[in-house]
Amino acid sequence: MMLTVFDTLRGRLIPFKPIDEGKVRIYVCGPTVYDLPHIGHARTLIIFDMIARYLTYRGYQINYIVNITDIDDKIIARAQESHVVPKDLARKFERIFLDDMKTLNATLVDAYPRVSDNIPEIIKIILGLIEKGYAYQIDGDVYFDVTKSLSLGKLSNQSLDDVWVGARVKVDERKRNPADFALWKSSKKDEPFWESPFGKGRPGWHIECSAISMKYLSEQFDIHGGGRDLIFPHHENEIAQSEAYTGRIPVVRYWLHTGFLTIGGVKMSKSLGNFITVRDLLKEYDVNAFRLFITSTHYRSPIDYSEKGLKQSSRSLKRVFEALDNLRQGILVGDQGREDDKDERVTAEVKIIHQRFLKAMNTDFNTPEASSEFFKLIKLGNQAFSMKANTVLLQSIYDLIIELGGVFGLELERTHELTDEEKRLIAERDLARKNKEWKKADEIRQKLKETGIILKDYPRGTLWTVERK
Ligand code: AMP
Ligand code: ZN
Fold this sequence. Notes:
- This protein is α/β, with parallel strands linked by helices.
- The protein folds into three domains: 235 residues, Rossmann fold (3-Layer(aba) Sandwich), CATH 3.40.50; 89 residues, Four Helix Bundle (Hemerythrin (Met), subunit A), CATH 1.20.120; 47 residues.
- Helix 4 packs across helix 5 and helix 11 packs antiparallel against helix 12.
- The protein is elongated.
- Bound molecules: adenosine monophosphate (AMP) and zinc ion (ZN).
- The site of adenosine monophosphate (AMP) has 17 residues, from helix 1 and strand 9.
């Protein structure tokens, strides 16, 4: 089955074919580390984690890079406000970001290169751009001359005449064109700086991504991602820089952009202050429920955060765990030999659901449709359990739930191992129930509940699970 992806540059669905067969190189613009990551950042990073997981599932070997912007005006400003050194502030929020990525189970990133560790690479490209006539120096600053680039405007579909005074481009009289953007900024008093052939200073924002992607993924690579706020000017400028420097076009085969996570219809952002941090959200909700919430909407559409939406996803997650508990129970005490027409029908349905799941994912990662197939599988799992299907079938449904859930980055397998004491209590309760000592059985159940172990009694025996949010 062919995978198609929506490429922002060409504005349509394109069959996916990586540059090197069997390998996919992915670059996603990471955070500027001056504050806690919010769930808007998390959306973008969960989406690309899911894409990396699906590509891996399809058998591709992936190399996935996310950069860390640890030099930036906002970092310097925040550090000055809080009377700390910019580098210390950046390291602190970088650590928190990396921890959050782990708790979000967004674990497919191969490396998180920092801008500050790539200054020589950045300087080399700037020198090359000056040499080739694409960039010019004024008083220790270096600018990219947008009129020299053939690539500019392609991604966001703008002409140079639509005067480009992007949010991060200040009008500066000394520039040749208003849209010329900084490759190198001379340092002001009390600002961090690096020595360079242009003088003491630091890199502009866009050049870091050209330098880091080139170093880690080579001059041309497969997928470049980020939130849609980055299309212009950031990615536009990145294309201009990289293609001017290497002469190789296109630098990126597929540009993928995620829609915003909004709250009350407004983009969640640090600067607006309307954000919920990843940490706060995960105090309330299971990370699997959050990932189900994110995958319930197509990645290019906006997704509006609401408590109602998250609660709904939590309920859906409970259904998944219940089905898995049922299947486990069925496998434990089920009938291995039995197989009849009903089982055959279920087996055929499982195959169809799997196919439809893949078809949805192959169509520009249509997770809402894939998710609906996933929940059909959950329902079918419960049906198969109720009709006492044979254990081989139950096991195959169980395994497929884990497998497809894994594509969404869900961690569904039981992570808890019973302690000897917990095992002893469960056995003691079984005995009490056999002897109809209901009070004692209830007391033991309560005692286990206090330690987070939930017992469920089925006609065919008792099964335990861990308590979930
Ligand atoms: P920043 O630290 O703001 O540069 O953002 C880091 C990454 O998160 C970029 O790829 C942004 O596009 C993305 N991002 C930031 N806010 C949101 C949001 N509200 N929804 C989706 N993605 C976002
Ligand atoms: Zn970038």
